[in-house]
Amino acid sequence: MLGELSAAARERTAALAARRQELERLAAEAPRGPAFAAALGRPSVAVIGEVKRRSPSKGDIAPGLSAGEQSAAYEAGGAAVLSILTEPARFGGSNADIAAARAATALPILKKDFHVEPLQLVEARALGASAALLIARALHPRDLKALSQLARDLALETLVEIRDERELDAALAADAAVIGVNNRNLETLLIDLATGERIVPLIPADRVAVFESGVYGVAEVERAAAAGADAVLVGSSISAAADPVAAVRALAGVPRRGRAPAAA
Ligand SMILES: O=P(O)(O)OC[C@@H](O)[C@@H](O)c1c[nH]c2ccccc12
């Protein structure tokens, strides 16, 4: 699944190559988005609200979602940051969703896609995203490092997604400031919150740690907090909610417990 999604992203980027100069100019001219990592440092576990119309595991979640209206609802409910899934084939997203979210809210935006090519990061910056997702499992550690450096050069923040100790090492080697542990195995698509509970405590206390996937209610936010997470990334449950303002509000406000500094 991950290989297929990354290959498809690479193909879409090949089509972007003709627009390279234009994208580089737009990226240089676009005002920097609001600070992403800094917005996640709250007294309570920060909620990253994701706009998610469909997924490979669930099929349709909320096919008719308006990215602008949904983003405004997340903001009203107390989300700290937005995650906008732009992947078109399997998640039903688009770049236009970023523009719609930007127009509707003042929150920092994470562009969620299978970013494997440098030009995709230039595009993310041109679109006005504050940050872009990098999935450690989809990238050779060398490429994770190079894309992380390119993002810094572009004044684009990143969220580096990991699932195990080896990927944590790769994220740290890439100097990732924000590290997300995905509870979903992107190969089997199964969710196991024990993944985040095991890996989040290993993330150095000076990084922002995000607990991703499988958060449906406050019980899961409590588990994230107990593991020491600074933020939760929530997609399906709040995208499908009849009242997304109330759904986000129900998750926001769990006190952050922090992580102990690593033993020397
Ligand atoms: O819908 P959920 O279980 O709340 O999960 C959200 C988010 O973590 C998930 O969409 C996600 C995590 N990593 C990704 C990488 C690509 C696409 C999607 C994702």
From TrEMBL:
Keyword Chloroplast set for record: no
Gene Ontology annotations of biological process type: L-tryptophan biosynthetic process
Sequence ranges assigned to domain Indole-3-glycerol phosphate synthase in this UniProt record: 10-251
Catalytic activity: 1-(2-carboxyphenylamino)-1-deoxy-D-ribulose 5-phosphate + H(+) = (1S,2R)-1-C-(indol-3-yl)glycerol 3-phosphate + CO2 + H2O
GO molecular function: indole-3-glycerol-phosphate synthase activity; phosphoribosylanthranilate isomerase activity
InterPro entries to which the protein is assigned, alphabetical: Aldolase_TIM, Indole-3-glycerol_P_synth, Indole-3-glycerol_P_synth_dom, Indole-3-GlycerolPSynthase_CS, RibuloseP-bd_barrel
Statement: the UniProt record of this protein carries the keyword Lyase: yes
One family name in Pfam for this protein: IGPS
Gene3D superfamilies, A to Z: Aldolase class I
Annotated metabolic or biological route of this protein: Amino-acid biosynthesis; L-tryptophan biosynthesis; L-tryptophan from chorismate: step 4/5
This enzyme's EC code(s): 4.1.1.48
Keywords (A to Z) from UniProt: Amino-acid biosynthesis, Aromatic amino acid biosynthesis, Decarboxylase, Lyase, Tryptophan biosynthesis
PROSITE patterns reported in the protein's UniProt record: IGPS
Protein name: indole-3-glycerol-phosphate synthase
Chain's gene name: trpC2
